[in-house]
Design goal:
Layout lengths: L7 H31 L4 H29 L2 H20 L4 H28 L6 H21 L13 H21 L15 H9 L4 H29 L3 H19 L2 H8 L1 H18 L6 H29 L5 H50 L19
Organism: Arthrobacter wenxiniae
Membrane topology: Multi-pass membrane protein
Pfam family, one: Sugar_tr
């Protein structure tokens, strides 16, 4: 198990924080999609909702990481939890307006970003080199547990079979936000080095990281992978709504994805040692693409559940790989910035790609979005080939990737 400042209690607080954060996020995001549809929003508007989650956070990512490197992670965790509480309150009291729902989505995105950067910086700053794959695997296991719990709220009985209890879910998320705020007070920042005041300025440090061979392609792959998860979350309710699939069944598919993502991360370190980061990244992206392409077919519910599980295992495997590699590249005092650089690239993908595919939904529906996302992932496998290997060495391809 990973050590955070060498104390089991600190580990539990951090993992609990990750679980609650992701439970809130993965309950609210699909529920916001249902809420937008309920007030008359179109399927094309769901792409804007996905982008609204990413745009404010995209602006804040690098500054937040830089501040964390100088002041510690706890303040970021507290600010993130506060933003999530505000998001829930906006959704509860302004859920009848598309504009307010978009604002709630923005606060949700900011709260999620500030919280995730703080969590990842703690892991990166308290892990020994050579252990990043396994430690980030454990951390992302906790995140996936939260991603599994959150969608379970969609299975609660609603006004119709196809619609979950939107208002109730927002209230539960608001209560969980208060819990997250309490946990944030209990999480301690990692130790600051003696050279804290001499850390490199934000933009030069970021430019240095970006000059690493293969890094930009690896960041592109990571952003495509995460955007596909966002699109899956946003458009699976629309697919179910259009095909008359019950909200409980949609919840089961979301839970299946999360469970298998969680399961895959327990073995991430072993899989990297067996196959190497690069090979594992490419193959899991390709499997994810194939699973999403099949969603466009009118398949039985049992098959859709199985495809959700396959997609979850594959996408859950490749998500933490760029995280561990970038943490390994960064030097002490820049790891918060390095994590925020990765998250900024992810948010850029979450902003541009869903907006583009949201226009496709108007013409081809949710099934067309799944096809386009699958094709996009298949192209992302080429970018994934740029990810570097672990420092301990994983085999004959353990050489720096060329951009």
């Amino acid at each position: 198990m990973m050590a955070v400042q060498g104390r089991p209690r600190a580990v539990l607080f951090l993992l609990a924080h990750a679980v609650v954060l992701q439970a809130i996020t993965f309950a609210m995001r699909p529920t916001l999609s249902y809420a937008v549809l309920d007030v008359g929003g179109s399927q094309a508007l769901l792409g804007v909702v996905v982008a609204a989650f990413a745009v404010p956070a995209l602006i804040l990512a690098l500054p937040a990481g830089h501040v964390i490197d100088r002041t510690g992670e706890r303040a970021s965790l507290l600010a993130g939890a506060g933003a999530l509480v505000v998001a829930a309150l906006l959704a509860i009291f302004g859920g009848g307006s598309v504009g307010v729902l978009l604002l709630a989505t923005m606060f949700l995105g900011v709260g999620h970003l500030l919280s995730v950067i703080g969590e990842q910086a703690i892991v990166a700053n308290t892990t020994s080199r050579g252990q990043f794959d396994s430690k980030f695997g454990y951390f992302t296991f906790a995140s996936a547990l939260g991603q599994t719990i959150g969608p379970l709220l969609l299975a609660l009985p609603g006004d119709t079979v196809q619609t979950p209890p939107v208002a109730l879910i927002f209230v539960v998320c608001g209560a969980l936000g208060v819990v997250l705020l309490g946990i944030s007070f209990l999480v301690r920042s990692s130790e600051r080095s003696a050279a804290a005041g001499e850390r490199a300025r934000m933009l030069p440090a970021a430019a240095t990281l970006l000059r690493t061979p293969g890094l930009i392609r690896a960041l592109v792959a990571g952003s495509i992978v995460l955007a596909s998860v966002d699109l899956f979350l946003a458009y699976l309710p629309a697919l179910g709504h259009g095909r008359g699939i019950a909200a409980a069944a949609v919840s089961a598919m979301l839970v299946a994805r999360s469970l298998l993502s969680m399961f895959s991360r327990l073995f991430l370190g072993r899989m990297v040692k067996l196959l190497g980061r690069r090979r594992l990244m490419v193959w899991t992206i390709l499997v994810s693409a194939a699973a999403l392409l099949l969603f466009a077919l009118p398949l039985p519910l049992a098959v859709l559940l199985a495809l959700s599980a396959v997609y979850g295992f594959a996408i859950g495997t490749c998500q933490p790989i760029t995280m561990s590699w970038i943490a390994e590249l960064a030097t002490p005092g820049t790891r918060g910035l390095a994590m925020s650089l990765r998250l900024a690239s992810n948010r850029l993908g979450q902003t541009v790609l869903p907006s583009l595919l949201g226009t496709l939904a108007a013409a081809a529906g949710a099934a067309g979005v799944f096809v386009a996302t699958g094709v996009m992932l298949a192209g992302g496998a080429w970018s994934g080939a740029a990810v570097g290997q672990a420092q301990s060495g994983e085999g004959p391809d353990d050489v720096p990737a060329r951009p």
